[in-house]
Specification:
GO terms for molecular function: acyltransferase activity. This protein starts with a strand and ends with a strand. It is globular. The protein is an alpha+beta fold. The chain has one domain: Aminopeptidase (3-Layer(aba) Sandwich).
Amino acid sequence: MLIRSFEEHDRLPLRDLYLQTRLHAWTWLDSSAWRPEDFDSVTKDEQIWVAEEDGELLGFASVWVVDDFLHSLYVAPAHQGKRVGKALLEKVQAEFVAHGTLKCLVKNVSAFEFYQRHGWLVESRGDSEDGEYYLMGFGG
């Protein structure tokens, strides 16, 4: 598996991966307005890392570099549980300059457990339009 920087030709398959993964994981939310193009606004001006194997995109992570904020980490449903998320997370963590943070929806139990297994700690809680979230921190 290769972890590499986003290239423009990744956009269309990552749009689909983003939508399909959200539909799979966030079943408690109203998805009627979700579109593949949402990927573009969610990752705008962020560093995007892509997991690829044999030409297939397996997942991606996007980071708001200025704040060491992991904004998105998505692994295609067919590739979850196969260390793709771990590889992406390790790449992101290696790029942090200081203390990394992320927000994880409270109802996204599997993601929360994933981050905890990899050393992330809850720093606080908050509310968003998608529901209550944990603010989690790593390192520094």
